[in-house]
Amino acid sequence: MTGLAGKTALVTGAGRGIGAATAAALSRLGANLVLAARGAEAIARVAAGLPNAIAVATDIADADAVDRLFAAARARFGRVDVLVNNAATVEPIGRIGDVDPRAWAASLQANIAGQFFCARAALADLPDVIIVNISSGAAHRPQEGWSAYCAGKAGLAMLTRSLHLEYAAHGLRAVGFRPGVVDTEMQGLIRASGINPVSRMPRTALQPAALPAQAIAWLCGAEAADLAGQEADIRDPAFRARAGLPPL
Fold first, then answer.
1. Maximum Cα–Cα distance for the chain, whole Å?
2. pTM, whole model, 2 decimals?
3. In this structure, are residues 138 and 146 in contact, taking their beta carbons and an 8 Å threshold?
């Protein structure tokens, strides 16, 4: 796997779960790290355990806050080479007629507008910028009770394609990644709802966050250049083999 020594990676939603595991995986490849999340204490703990890492408490749904995040990253490390757009919320969970419309709109602000703000900010460091957008099977297949989450992830999938269309020729590599069902705090909320088949999966069927984190780190290397503009799926046997993951 290609190392990232001297490169700077910015990871959103880095306080726990896939984000924290991805930060650790990128650190092992030598990357400088900028860790962002709303919870200041959580990202501070993650950053404290990694070399060359800073924590910047940020609500990515706020465009001005995202600008300050990238300014802090550049002030510390000079530029951002890799953006992992990981931050997301699955709430509100409920059928369309039952959920609060304000919560529904806030979900899209966090799950697609925020990722757009981050991707747009990263363009200032072109060329040679990599953006990995954390997608989901929910982007392509609806799940009962997840209308906001599915709509946001569907929008993110199209954002990946739009970034590739508009900026690949200018030195941007944008790729989507479906991490599968992972044992995270978000999955705890999903299991508590009991609203759809995913929520009824036993915890023993969930994969550890370290596996998708390894795949995300691999996507940031030169070996994954041919996947630009596409969505990689952790359940694809060919992708798993390339990323060094064990067979299913």
1. 50
2. 0.95
3. yes
List residues with catalytic annotation: 149
Q: Give CA–CA dist 91/242, Å, rounded.
A: 33
- Set out the domains of the chain in order of their start, with CATH numbers: 9-169+213-225 (3.40.50.720)
d(CA 128, CA 92): 37
- Evaluate whether 156 touches 85 at the Cβ level (below 8 Å): yes
- In angstroms, the CA 146 to CA 76 distance is 38
| Residue whose structure tokens are 């394609």 | 161
Average pLDDT of adjacent 10-residue blocks, the chain of 248 residues: 89 97 97 98 97 98 98 98 97 96 98 98 98 96 94 98 98 97 77 80 84 98 97 97 95
Alpha carbons 143 and 140: distance in angstroms, whole number? 10
